[in-house]
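Progress note, project year one: complex with adenosine-5'-diphosphate.
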Amino acid sequence: MEKEDQGLAIGIDLGTTYSCVAVWQEHLNRVEIIHNDQGDNTTPSCVAFNDHQRLIGIPAKNQAATNPQNTVFDAKRLIGRKYSDDIVQKDRMLWPFKVVAGDNDKPMIVVNYKGEEKQLCAEEISSMILGKMRDIAEAFLEKPVKNAVVTVPAYFNDSQRKATIDAGAIAGLNVVRIISEPTAAAIAYGLDKRSSCVEERNIFVFDLGGGTFDVSLLTIKDKNYHVKATAGNSHLGGEDIDNNMVKYFVEEIKRKNRVDISDNPRALRRLRTACEAAKRTLSFATTTNVEVEALFGDNNFCSSMSRARFEEINLELFEECMKTVERCLTDAKIEKSSVHDVVLVGGSSRIPKVQQLLKDFFNRKDLCKSINPDEAVAYGAAVQAALLSEGIKNVPDLVIWDVTPLSLGISATLDKVMSVVIPRNTTIPVKRIEVYVTLEDNQSSAEICVYEGERKRASDNNLLGFFILAGLSRAPRGHPLDVTFAIDENGILSVSAEEKTTGKKNMITITNNKDRLSTGEIERMIQEAEVYKDEDKKFLRKAKTKSDLDECIYKMSNFLKNEYISATLCSEEKKAFRSAINTATDLLDEENVEHEIVVFEDCLAGLQSMLERVMDMGQIA
Ligand code: ADP
Ligand code: MG
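Model obtained:
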C-alpha cells in the first residue's frame, strides 16, 4: 500500500455525538486509545460559543442547558447536505440552535459569539472537533500531528465524504484516508481474533451510535477485509431514543401538571440530559428515576421509568433497526446462518432489548462484545493510519476493501433514465466504462450528468455534477463515447468522457458539486480557524492573568496586615501599596468594560514587583 505523506498519522472516529482518537504505538506494538484532558476516552462532538469564548467537547456539553441556542451538536447530520434536504428540515425542528439556508442551499448554523452573530457551516464545526481531537493526541504524543485517518458512516455519499476531508483541511489536518466506520470496527475486531482467523469468516457489524445506525457485512480471510454490503439509517440512534423519552415525559407533564414545556428549549435540554442518563442506567437496571430540579418554574420534576416502558416507547425504533439488518443480508446475498460473528459497536448497542432482538434474529447466536463499542472505530482507524504512516514497522498487515454506498450513474437517454455505471455495494477502488451514445445526428457536444442514488428516474437521484464534451466529430446518432467512472480508496469519484475515434477527452472530479467548499472558501475558513484558536488562547491567557492578579491582591493584602511589615513601610509606601491594590481590585470588578490583556498584565507586573519587595521584608521578619 502506498505511503502517503510523511509523519505519524492518528485515527479519528468523528462521531455524531462522541468522537474518539487513537494512535498506533510502535514501541508497544498496539493501538492506544487517547484520553482527553478529563481522562475520558471519548469526547462529546459539541462546540459552544458565548460572549467571551468558544468551548469544545466536555465544557461545551456541560453548559448546554444554560446556553442552548449557541451550543452546536449533531453537525455531522448536516455535513454534505443541502438545507432543503428533508432530513435537515426534520432535524432543524428538534435543535435548539438555529440553522438557515446559505448560498447554494448550504445549511448554515447561526450562533452568537462575543456579542456578534456568526454563521458557520457544518464543515467548520466538524473542523473544530477534529482540531480538538488532534490537540488531545498532540498533548499525549508530545509532538505535532499533521495526518489523520477519519472515519465516516458507510452510507456517506460522495459530497459527505469530501466535506469531511474539507473539515480536516480547515483544522489544518491532512486527511490521508477516509474509511467507513464498520470497516474500522471490523479491523479492531479482526485483530482481536487474528489468531483464530484462518478460514474465511463472515462478520456482521452492528453499529448503533448516538445519531446514526450502520450495519455491514464483511468477510475476513487472512489479511483481507472485504466489505460485502452495507446498509444504514442516517437518522436513527441514541438521540432518537432520548427524544422518544423526552416526548413521553412532556406528555406526562402536560397530563399531570397541565404545563406544556415543548416550547421551552432550556427545560427540554435539561430533561433530555436526564433522559440520556436514565437510558444508560436502564441498560443495567430494570427501573430508574428521572429527576430534574426546577424544570418549569419552581416545580421539581420527579418521575420514573421501567425498562419495560422504555422498551415499549422505543420498540418501533428497535424494529426499524432489525429491518435494516435484514436488508443488508439480502444485499450481501448471505444467509443469516452463514454469519460467523455478530459484532456490537456504538454506545446504543449496549441496550439489552437491542441485543436480544439481534440475538433472536441470528438464531440465538452469541454476540461478540469483546471490543469496547465506544473505541472500536477509532482503534481500526489508528491501524489504518499506521499502515499509511512512514517508517512504522510491525503494523499488522491487512488490506481493506470498501464498497460504494450508493449506485452511481449517468443520465444519457431522452427519457432521462438513470443508467447505473457502478452499482451500490461495488468494491472500491473501482473503474468502469460505460458507452454513451449520441441522441441526434451530427450532435456537436454531449452533456454528461452524473448522479448517485437508487431511483430509476435520474432527476429523483442526487445530481453530483455535470460536464460537457464539446467538438464531437460529425456522425449519425448513436455515435459512441466512452464514459469512465473511477472511485478511489476514499470513495471519491472522478468521471471522464472520451470520443474514441478522435481521442477528445473531458473529465471531472466531482468538485463542481455545489455542496463542496471551494479552495478559496477552505482557505478563508483555515484563516478563521486560526483566529478562533488565537482567541481561545487569548481568553485562557486573560483568565489566567486575572486569576494571578486576584491571588496577588490577596497575598498583598495579607502581607500588609502583618505588623512587622506594616511598621517597616513608610506611610508613602503604604499608601502606594493600598492604592495599587485598590486599582487592581477595581479592574477585576469592572464587569462592563472589556479591557485588553495587557491592561491586566501591566497591573499584575506592577503588583508582583511590589509583592516581591514585601515578601523580602517578610523573610527578614
Ligand atoms: P456516535 O458514534 O454516533 O457519536 P456513540 O457510538 O459514541 O455514538 O454512542 C453514543 C450514544 O450511545 C449516545 O446516544 C449515548 O446516550 C448512547 N449510550 C452510551 N452508553 C449507553 C448505555 N450504557 N446504554 C444505552 N445507551 C448508551
Ligand atoms: Mg460511532
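Confidence is low (pLDDT under 50) at residues 1-5.
The CA atoms of residues 346 and 405 lie 20 Å apart.
No further modelling is planned for this target in the current period.
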